[in-house]
Design goal:
alpha/beta; five-stranded parallel beta sheet; four-stranded parallel beta sheet; 38% helix
Amino acid sequence: MSIRTRIELAPTKTCNTSLAENPWAFDTAPGYGPGSSQEDTVPGFAPTNATARPGQLPEAYRKMDDEELHRRIREAKATLGEKLVILGHFYQRDEVVQHADFIGDSFQLANAALTRPEAEAIVFCGVHFMAETADILSTAEQKVILPNLAAGCSMADMADEDSVETAWEEIAEVYGFDPENPQPDEDGKLPVIPVTYMNSSAALKAFCGQRGGIVCTSSNATTVLEWAYERAHRVLFFPDQHLGRNTAKAMGIPLEQMPMWNPRQPLGGNSAEDLQEAKVLLWHGFCSVHKRFTVEQIDKARQEHPGVKVIVHPECPMPVVDAADEAGSTDAIRKFVEASQPEDVIAVGTEINMVNRLAAEYPDRTIFCLDPVICPCSTMYRIHPGYLAWVLEDLVAGEVSNQITVPERIATPAKIALDRMLAAKPR
């Protein structure tokens, strides 16, 4: 049963009943729309994210039924052949991901795009920062398309270029280095190195590339932090505090050496003395999907299902990760389920579309989401078959709609940081 069907059958158990509507009903409204991020506030700055420039689906596609949309998508794919590759994130809705040539997490899809140099068009069924990354890593001849420009990311919007640059200048003053040209000390290490999560704008990836830093994903965060500590005494980690905290804690770094950096306060809300002792400066950001999971949900799952195995995403708060049996990226969660046995009971703390798909793929196991409220990633959910059919048929007609293009001045340094990420293989 699809998530949309489940929402329609049990609207009182969703976080917003309008989530069952087609996305064009709300993709031009302010904010992130119904779903897990509905209470997140769009920042006052003009984000590079798509929330600032939503698109609107042509009316003809809004009137088509699902059967016609899927038929048109299949026919357009067949016509375009090897000129097209469709990438689908694990969190994408079933109605869309069924048409993807590659399905994976952000790390896997970044690599998958590199395997199809003959494709003239890369259609990314994900969110804006993912399409930006694909554009940076693709060839100059390839066009990257995001079917719905309103598919953004509230976490990515929590760290903007101006705020990070201001923070960097304050940090440089505390640690006594030139913010434009940090130099290693007598130990051969920099005072601090920037690490941005994949869930960030291309501008912030460029910021890291220009300052010796790197990009990480939830798959390779440990490898990336090890890379960073070989080169620096400290890490500025943004935008997700939880991934940074959980990863560093697993590496043995004490919590008192992980101060939070709140960009709305001087020195991020810290004293200069506290910052001197820091090993990780954690940006005040989070994922709206994963912050919903709680220790109480895990306790309830253990009470109702003795012997249940609990696995959660490392974007979840630290107490949730500590209470779970395992924590890992979306691909690690998939592999965990794949390695399980028939009759196993598995509670999963990640986005509902992926959990629902795993449950359907392994019907001989009991697989359920820790959060009983059906709350998908609202911006990821804005990719709909109607948008996919539209951009594909435009390609057949020789037109490129919703192309994502990263300016060269940003793409060049961002690629440096992304290439470092791709070299930091997950364990």
